[in-house]
Each structure stands twice: as structure tokens, then as C-alpha cells.
TrEMBL record:
GO terms for molecular function: rRNA binding; tRNA (uracil(54)-C5)-methyltransferase activity, S-adenosyl methionine-dependent; tRNA binding. Keywords: Methyltransferase, S-adenosyl-L-methionine, Transferase, tRNA processing. GO terms for biological process: tRNA methylation. Dual-specificity methyltransferase that catalyzes the formation of 5-methyluridine at position 54 (m5U54) in all tRNAs, and that of position 341 (m5U341) in tmRNA (transfer-mRNA). It comes from the Bacteria. This is tRNA/tmRNA (uracil-C(5))-methyltransferase. S-adenosyl-L-methionine binds at residues 186, 219, 224, 240, 300. The keyword S-adenosyl-L-methionine applies. Belongs to the class I-like SAM-binding methyltransferase superfamily. RNA M5U methyltransferase family. TrmA subfamily. The gene is trmA. Its EC number is 2.1.1.35. PANTHER family: TRNA/TMRNA (URACIL-C(5))-METHYLTRANSFERASE (PTHR47790), TRNA_TMRNA (URACIL-C(5))-METHYLTRANSFERASE (PTHR47790:SF2).
Length: 367
């Protein structure tokens, strides 16, 4: 099925098939029926990237089938994209085609939007961007009422800002997130909300339980999970390797008034070495890891899953909250983690409708 146009009548059937397949795959580790969180059947993607097809002095949005990069098909709509993306696509394309400066050697356009209605457009070129381009791009920005960002080789021209602000209502409280262009954000906004709400439900719910331990989070990104979960713990320590994401997380911590959360710029492998005192880190010179009493660890790793050392390290904690964008590598890790822990909760999040991909979550408790 072409993902620019989908048949929403088929959504539930496809979701049921994915759930059945995943439930069978997880059978060696749990007989729990999964908690299933469906996506909106359309307009669910908050970000999109289009190749720009140049032909006969005109440019159009285009997509390609995998492995067929010389056979583009031009698109006029993108029903999986947010309504804001679909609103912006026609006037942006008209304006680009009306300007040779904006059209010439444009090869990619990216949209970044939010559930709260914010948007950012990035235009990417095979040419240097000079004063004339900036002048016309500023006029376009004024016309659309949306920040424009220009990219070329070794160039990034920010006309207003290079981020959007997302506002998510999670269990009756609004959280605000700065999401920076080019850094990782969850693509499906409604599923993101479901994932955070589910993760919160897996955390201590009473003040007595909250006082009994701290939270460690690896791969925290911009604080997507970290910030809402902080209310459930005495103290929270989170790690992230991307400097851009760490900076955004620090701003998001301040914007949401969280005062019990610290972020360290470390990879999961480095944190494992630090907590095991294998070697010192200058970034930890004034930081006391021994002051934390971790009861729960949250991991949301890349598609490759957890490396062997990190997997062994998190197995020390009483509770493991493991959210995965790749159930195959999560299953590989569960082969080890279920030697010491049992699965108490199991969830399926349909982050990527109409594809074979999905996200899964498990709460593991020490046996």
C-alpha cells in the first residue's frame, strides 16, 4: 500500500494481524494479553520528508518505492501526515514553483509539526544559499506564517527558529516540549501520548512507594518520558548522548518546572562503566552517583536494542520498563532479562500503521 494515501477501512484488520503476530512472538516470555494502543487511522504522522521531483521547470513532492529510486511518483496529498502538514503542502508548493530562486536545485522538503499546531519547514538544496535566497525565503515565511529553515552542504540558515513547541495533555496535565529540527522525536503524536501515559501507569502511584526509590533512564532524548515520570519518583537521573537532545531536555525540564531530575551526556555503555567505576569521567567530576537509590530503570533504545553490558547492568534493578521500536531486538534482550525478571505488563503501540513495524513495551519485575 502506498503510504501517501491509505484505506482507513483496512486499519483495524491490519492492526489485529500485527497484534496476533506479536503476541505469538512474545509467547516464550509471557502469556499476558497485550494492552493495545491503536493509532488514529489517518493524519497521525507529525513529521514528513519528501523528495522534490524536478521536471520541465516545475517541482513536485515525490515518493519512491524502496529500491526504485529512479521511478518517483508525484503526490498531491499525504493522508498519513498531520492535518497541518496537509494544509501547508499546497501553498508551499505553489510559492516554490512561482520562484526560480526557491525552486532551483531544491531536492528535499521536510515538515515538522505538533499536535498543538506548531510547524517548521526545512528546504534542502544542492546549491549554496545566499542573500537572494534568504530574501525570498523570508517572504515565503511571512506568507505562510511558518518558520522556514534552509539547508545546503555545510550550511544551515535559520530565519526564525529551528524547533517547534509541542504541548501534550498527559493524564490531565499539560507538558511542553521543545523539539529541535534534525533531532529525534516520536513521529506519531497520539501514540506518543499513549506511550507516556502507559509508562506513568507502570510507576509508583503512592507517596510511600515514590519515596522508596529513584528512576534511571537511558536514551532519554529531549525528556519525552523523563519529565512526566519524574513526579512518580524521589529523584531521577537520565542519560543521553546527543548534545542537541541534552540541551533541549534541559530547557524542557525548566519549562515544565521539574526540580528532581538531572541529565548526563553519556551513552548507555559509558554509564555502565561509570556506575561500575570502571573508569572516571570528567563529566561526572562533581556528580555523586552513590546518592541515588535506583528502584526502576527505563530504557527506550535504538532499533539495535541493548548491548550485552547494558542488558546485564539493568538486570540489577528491581523493575525494568523497556519500550522498544524494534520488537525483534527486544525479544533478543528478553531472552536474558527474563532469567532474572518476569513480565508483569505487556503493551503494543501502533506507532507505524499500515506497515510491519510497531512498538512494544514491557514492565519486568525481579523474580
Amino acid at each position: 500500500m502506498a503510504l501517501h494515501r491509505v484505506n482507513t477501512d483496512e486499519y483495524q484488520q491490519q492492526l489485529d494481524q500485527k497484534v496476533a503476530r506479536l503476541r505469538e512472538a512474545y509467547t516464550p516470555y509471557t502469556d499476558l494479553a497485550p494492552e493495545v494502543f491503536p493509532s488514529p487511522p489517518s493524519h497521525y504522522r507529525m513529521r514528513a520528508e519528501f523528495k522534490m521531483w524536478q521536471d520541465g521547470g516545475r517541482v513536485d513532492y515525490a515518493m519512491y518505492k524502496q529500491g526504485e529510486y529512479k521511478k518517483p511518483f508525484v503526490i498531491q496529498e499525504f493522508t498519513v501526515g498531520s492535518r497541518r502538514i496537509n494544509e501547508l503542502m499546497p501553498p508551499l508548493l505553489d510559492a516554490i514553483n512561482a520562484s526560480e530562486m526557491l525552486r532551483k536545485r531544491l531536492f528535499c522538503t521536510e515538515f515538522l509539526t505538533t499536535l498543538s499546531g506548531d510547524a517548521l519547514i526545512t528546504l534542502i538544496y544542492h546549491k549554496p544559499l545566499g542573500d537572494e535566497w534568504e530574501s525570498e525565503a523570508r517572504a515565503l515565511q511571512e506568507q505562510l506564517g511558518v518558520p522556514i529553515l534552509g539547508r545546503s552542504r555545510k550550511q544551515k540558515l535559520v530565519l526564525e527558529r529551528d524547533y517547534v513547541i509541542e504541548k501534550l495533555d498527559i493524564d490531565g496535565r499539560e507538558y511542553q516540549y521543545k523539539q529541535v529540527e534534525g533531532s529525534f522525536t516520536q513521529p506519531n503524536g497520539e501514540i506518543c501520548r499513549s506511550m507516556i501515559s502507559w509508562a506513568k501507569s507502570c510507576c509508583p502511584q503512592t507517596s510511600e512507594d515514590k519515596a522508596s526509590g529513584d528512576l534511571l533512564e537511558l536514551y532519554c532524548g529531549n525528556g519525552n518520558f523523563t519529565i512526566p515520570l519524574a513526579a512518580h519518583f524521589r529523584k531521577v537521573l537520565a542519560t543521553e548522548i546527543s548534545k542537541v537532545s541534552v540541551n533541549a531536555a534541559q530547557e524542557n525540564i525548566a519549562a515544565n518546572g521539574v526540580d528532581n531530575l538531572a541529565i548526563l551526556r553519556l551513552s548507555s555503555e559509558e554509564f555502565t562503566q561509570a556506575i561500575d567505576k570502571v573508569r572516571p569521567f570528567r563529566r561526572l567530576k562533581d556528580f555523586d552517583l552513590d546518592s541515588y537509590d535506583f528502584s526502576t530503570v527505563l530504557v527506550d533504545p535504538p532499533r539495535a536494542g541493548l548491548d550485552q553490558d547494558t542488558c546485564a547492568m539493568i538486570a540489577r534493578f528491581p523493575k525494568i520498563l523497556y519500550i522498544s521500536c524494534n520488537p525483534e531486538t527486544q525479544l533478543e534482550n528478553l531472552a536474558e532479562l527474563t532469567k532474572t525478571h518476569r513480565i508483569e505488563r505487556f503493551a503494543i503501540f501502533d506507532q507505524f500503521p499500515y506497515t510491519d513495524h510497531t512498538e512494544s513495551g514491557v514492565l519486568l519485575v525481579r523474580k
